[in-house]
Amino acid sequence: MKAIRALMPLVLVVAPSIFAAAETTEASFAWSRPILDPPAPGALFRIEVPFDVYARCHDFPSDIRIFDSEQGVWPFFLAKTPPPAAAMTVAVDTVNQAFVEGIEPHWRLDLHPHPSTTPGSRPRHDHVTITTTGRDFIRRVEIYGSEEQQQWALLGQGYLIHVDHPRLIQEDTIRYPTADYPYVQIRVYPNARDARETFTIRQARLGVYREQTPQERPVPHSILTTDRADDHRDAQVLTLDLGYENIPLAAVEIMAEAGGDYHRRAVAWLRNERSAAWRFAGAGNVYRMGESNKSRIPLHGAGRYLKVELYHDDDPPLSLTPLVARAPRHELVVQAGDGRSPRLWYGGEHVAAARHDLAVRFSSIAPPDSVPVQLGDAIPNPDHRRTGFGSWGPVLAGTAVFIAALIVLVVIVRMLKRMPAPQT
Questions:
Q1: Cα(297)–Cα(160) distance, rounded to whole angstroms?
Q2: What sign for the dihedral angle of Cα 388, 390, 396, 398?
Q3: Residue 168, Cβ neighbours under 10 Å: how many?
Q4: How many whole angstroms separate alpha carbon 79 and alpha carbon 68?
Q5: Nearest by Cα to 153 from 185, 106, 127, 115
């Protein structure tokens, strides 16, 4: 019993401190930014998440709060970013497919999209995906549209690419401005490497992209000298410092300066620290063939350092324009409170996620009538204190609960022993 009494002060001191730490205040966060010119109370507004927030948060977006000078809490949610453009297949009938002889022999394929089910409208289309026979080719493609198959308007042109050596590069989709012509003609010309080749069109799928409003932003960066260990004899290697850790990336754009045609394989890697191992972030093809070009490589992952390997193999390296790294445009949707001088607080250890019903009321999508509001500069919080005893918090909490339960059990046992025996 003496040991139990000795542990009582520990329980009385540690347990209240641990459970009091669950209260989240301004002191729970290491950084803040003032919200400039917030709207009237009750109005909705949007804040673009600064890049430093990704690095200074311990669990983005859980350790974020908005308090005003009266300690009022302003509800918010992280707006969902629109999904990537989804390709929808347009049903068609094949009107004609034939090989056309002449000065420029080519395969011709005429398609007729099925009529729209909506009265007064016609099906829209903006790309075609083409599969042909053969391997190791670069074939020019032209896409035309017509009202009555008499006069044809050029919609777009590009190249089908299937190169096996020294690296596999493939491209089978030709994009063009959205159109609603009821007839589409596809012309595929022989291989630029071997004009005498024979091939056929296996399949052509007409489609339309359900585009979403772009929700990306360029990431400022500096170019670093590539480490010797990352140099590659067959590739140009570029290393970018994005300035902050944990920046999520959506894509990188790679384009050569004005010049001739090219096609290259690109591989991208990410890491947070200069000494850490690289993590694969994405790969794809970039090319310029006549008026057709592709410069975007989709990425996934987050980090501070981005490495891009652009493989030229036996060709000379390209003279590149500055690379463009793109991040998703994350926005906080906030409902203004009654207090003054609101601030965005972030960077708190062991802070649980805020649970507001604002996202439920607006389906996690930024309302169109919400206004953008700017943030001021980041300011370190001199009153910041680590909550929950840091990483030891869960251990100490469990120990305190165990000791308290043990004390209660001992008290119950002693009370039972003091009870008089039942009389018979």
A1: 18
A2: positive
A3: 10
A4: 21
A5: 185
Nearby residues of 303 by Cβ (< 8 Å), 6 or more positions away: 242, 245, 246, 247, 249, 270, 271, 272, 279, 281
Residue 284 to residues 135, 281, 299: CA-CA distances in angstroms? Answer: 19, 11, 10
Cβ atoms < 10 Å from Cβ of 286: 23
The residues, ordered by sequence, that sit 6+ positions from 344 with a Cβ below 8 Å of its Cβ are: 32, 33, 34, 35, 47, 64, 65, 66, 332, 375
Nearest residue to 46 via CA among 260, 365, 324: 365
pLDDT digits (tens, 9 = 90+) for 198-239: 899 999 999 998 765 568 999 999 999 988 888 888 899 999
Instruction: Name the token pair of 388.
Output: 């929950």
User: In percent, how much of the chain has pLDDT > 70?
Assistant: 86
Kindly state the tokens that stand for 49: 């998440």
**Residues in CB range of 187: below 8 A, 6 or more apart:** 100, 106, 107, 108, 141, 142, 143, 144
- Can you read off the two tokens belonging to residue 195? 């004009």
**Non-local CB neighbours of 386 within 8 Å, separated by 6+ positions:** 349
C-alpha distance from residue 64 to each of 19, 24, 310, 351 (Å): 20, 10, 38, 8
Phi, psi of 231 (to 5 degrees): -65, 145
d(CA 122, CA 182): 7
Of 32-36, 247-251, 367-371, 392-396, which gets the smallest average pLDDT? Answer: 392-396
For residues 284 and 286, what is the distance between their CA atoms, to the nearest angstrom? Answer: 7
User: Would you put residue 91 in left (φ > 0), alpha (ψ -120 to 50) or beta?
Assistant: beta
24-38, 180-194, 198-212 — most confident range? 24-38
By CB atoms closer than 10 A (0-12, 13-18, 19+), residue 383 is: exposed
Q: Which helix (H) or strand (E) holds 8?
A: helix 2-20
Q: Which two tokens stand for residue 59?
A: 């669990």
Give the pLDDT score at 250.
94
Listed ranges 133-142, 204-213, 363-372, 410-419; the one with the highest mean pLDDT: 133-142
